Amino acid sequence: MSGSALALVLVAALIHAGWNALAKRARDPLVFLWSSVTLASLGLAPLGAWVIVAEGWKPGGASFVLATVAVHAVYFWVLARAYGSGDLSVVYPVARGLGVALVPVLALVFLHERVSALGALGVALVVAGIVVIYVLGTPWNIGRSRPPVSMWSIATGLTVAVYSIIDKAGVARVHPLAYISLMGLGISVLLAPWVLTRRESLGREWRTNGRAIILASSMNLTSYLLVLFAFRQAKASYVVAARETSIVFSVLIGSLIMREAHAGSRLIGALVVLLGVVCVALAR
């Protein structure tokens, strides 16, 4: 993986963990996410329009934009549900880790990308780290079965894998700035009818977390824009795996700032994830 692609992904990972932590603390995560994405989209729209006028896009670009809008709308909806089902330092790794596991398979089938032995080892270590975080870091009592992984977390991971493949192909046809501008606007429009039925919650979220929404709006689409540029430089499997250094950051945030339990066990898993990312960074 090239140094420039890795740098883009690492910065994106830190920002991504940050806005997810803000969303986790929201009273209504979906309203929070919609508000921040809508603000970000309005800010990026002029740049996106300028790029579209200046460069246009290759044939088929519109199909990928429409597809990613649909999948991302589902992603934000199930992500909000996932954050209502458990701790940040468990929900986030499970959701992101499933995407890491699935992307190499989907990339081989749809993009004809093959990973090297070192790259495959890196992806496997990232997935193993996720398992460690769940097995050692999920609260449970002796004599009782371990709580099941939230279905919302699994659904989030599935959408991560699908939109990663769509977007890897999409940014080959549409400039990343134009791509993410249209994606953000589309997500906002698709989710608006549902959010606007919760006007009381919308007003309360802005009164309670207005500053956090504004902060998150500067982070969510920005972090993914960096990933889109990285998709232009590296294989989808490597970008998605390296991006999961955000898991390390999420565990640190959940453990040190949000005071979630079982910090030591979760940090062990995070270190395994980090080792996997190192392997991916060295892979070709």
Task: Please describe what this structure looks like.
This protein has 284 residues and is mainly alpha-helical. The protein has one domain. It is built from 12 helices and no strands. About 2% of the residues have low confidence. Helix content is 81%, strand content 0%.
Average pLDDT, all residues: 85
Shape: globular
Strand-and-helix sequence, N→C?
HHHHHHHHHHHH
How many strand units?
0
Structural class call reads mainly alpha
| Radius of gyration of CA atoms, rounded to a whole number | 18 Å
**Number of domain modules:** 1
Question: pLDDT below 50 for ≥5 consecutive residues: which ranges?
Answer: 141-145
Helix percentage: over 70%
- Rounded to the nearest angstrom, the distance between the terminal CA atoms is 6 Å
**In percent terms, what proportion of residues is strand?**
under 5%
Largest sheet: none
Query: Helical stretch count?
Result: 12
